[in-house]
Design goal:
By secondary structure, this protein is of the alpha/beta class. The protein is globular and about 60 Å long.
C-alpha cells in the first residue's frame, strides 16, 4: 500500500485514510513508514464560528489552487451523528464541483463531540495526504470551540474566518482565539458591519501586540460565494507560510503537535471506568482532585 500511495493511487489513499481515522495499528505503522516523505505540503487550518462560510471559502481556495495546477487535500471535521457516529454535514456533498477531480481529495471526519482522538487522526491524515504528494492540505473545523481551535493549530497556518453582524465574532476573539490566528479573513465582506468588524479586530490586535511585541496577523476581506478576494487571501496565506518556514517555527509547531499527541495517548491509556471512579470520590469530597490526578498518573507509570 505504501508504494501505491506514493504513486498517487486514490483507492489506496482512501483505504489508508480509513485505517488512519480508525486509529488502527496498521494506520500508525503506515504513517511511520511514510513520515520521511512528508514536509512538502502547506497544511492550512480553517476555523471560525458556524455560519461564517468556512466550507465555501475552502471550496473557492481549492478551485483557485486547481487552476494553478496544485493538488489539494481537504479534511473536514464535522459534527457526528448520535446514531452512526459518522460525520453528518458531509463536506463531500457540499463540494460537488470537485467530485470528479482526482486532484482534490476530500475526507469528512466525525468529531464525535470531543477532541479525543480527532486531533491525532487529523494530524495523521494531513501527513498521509502530504506524503501522497498533495501540495496543499486544508483542515476545516466545525466551529470555534477549544477542540476546533486545537485541531486548526495542527496546521502550518491557521486562518480564522469571521463574518459581520454575528455578534459573537469579537467575543470569540476575546476568548483566546485571537492568539492562534495567523490570518484573519472577513467573509461576506459586502454585508453591513464589515468595516466595524475589521476595526475591532485591529483594535484587539493593537492591545495584544503591545503586550506580546509580535507582528499583527494580516486581515483580508473576501466574498467567498463570488470568489472575490480569494487570490489575494491565498497570496497572504502563502506569505505567512513562507515566514513560518524557518527552523524555530517548525520546532514550535512540532512541540505543540507532540504535546497534543502525548495528551491523547496518555488519556487513551486510562479507562473511563478508572476516571469515573476517581470522579465519584472527588464529587463526594472523599478525595481532592490533586490526589486523584496523582493516583491516575501513578497508575500510568506503573503500566
Amino acid at each position: 500500500m505504501q508504494r501505491r500511495i506514493l504513486d498517487g493511487d486514490l483507492r489506496a489513499l482512501a483505504q489508508a485514510a480509513t485505517l488512519v481515522e480508525n486509529q488502527t495499528v496498521a494506520g500508525r505503522d503506515l504513517i511511520a513508514a511514510l513520515f520521511p516523505q512528508t514536509g512538502r505540503a502547506m497544511i492550512m487550518g480553517i476555523t471560525g464560528p458556524p455560519g461564517a462560510g468556512k466550507s465555501t471559502l475552502v471550496d473557492q481556495l481549492a478551485k483557485t489552487l486547481r487552476r494553478e495546477g496544485k493538488s489539494v487535500g481537504i479534511i473536514a471535521v464535522d459534527p457526528s451523528s448520535p446514531y452512526s457516529r459518522g460525520a453528518i454535514l458531509g463536506d463531500r456533498i457540499r463540494m460537488q464541483d470537485h467530485h470528479s477531480d482526482p486532484g482534490v481529495f476530500i475526507r469528512s471526519m466525525a468529531s464525535r463531540g470531543h477532541l479525543g482522538g480527532v486531533a491525532w487522526s487529523t494530524l495523521d491524515l494531513a501527513l498521509l495526504l502530504d506524503a501522497a504528494g498533495r501540495d496543499v492540505v486544508m483542515i476545516e473545523t466545525v466551529g470555534v470551540g477549544q477542540d476546533e481551535v486545537d485541531i486548526a493549530r495542527l496546521g502550518d497556518v491557521t486562518v480564522l474566518v469571521l463574518v459581520p453582524g454575528m455578534g459573537d465574532d469579537v467575543q470569540a476573539i476575546k476568548a483566546g482565539i485571537m492568539e492562534i490566528a495567523d490570518v484573519f479573513t472577513i467573509n461576506k465582506a459586502d454585508l453591513p458591519g464589515a468595516d466595524r468588524l475589521e476595526q475591532e479586530i485591529r483594535a484587539v490586535q493593537s492591545f495584544a501586540d503591545a503586550v506580546e511585541r509580535k507582528e499583527a496577523a494580516p486581515v483580508r476581506r473576501v466574498i467567498a460565494t463570488d470568489g472575490k478576494g480569494i487570490d489575494e487571501l491565498l497570496t497572504v496565506i502563502r506569505s505567512v507560510f513562507e515566514k513560518r518556514g524557518n527552523q524555530s517555527a517548525r520546532l514550535e509547531r512540532w512541540a505543540f503537535r507532540l504535546r497534543e499527541l502525548l495528551r491523547e495517548s496518555l488519556l487513551a491509556s486510562i479507562s473511563e471506568d478508572d476516571i469515573q471512579r476517581h470522579a465519584d470520590l472527588v464529587a463526594a469530597k472523599v478525595k481532592d482532585p490533586y490526589t486523584a490526578v496523582e493516583e491516575l498518573r501513578d497508575q500510568l507509570l506503573a503500566t
